Amino acid sequence: MEWSDFLKSGIGAVVGFLLGQVVNVAKLIAESINRPRLRIEPADSDCKILSHWAEIDQGQYVPEEAFGFHVRNGGRSLAQDVQFQLVKIEKRDPDESGFSVLSDHTYELATYTDATGRRGATKVTILPKAAVLVSLAWWRIDRDGLFPAIERLPDYYEESYSYGAEYRFTVAAFGSNARHVSKVLTIRDPASRRKQEKRNSAADAKGLA
Question: What is the pTM of this model?
Answer without folding.
Answer: 0.80
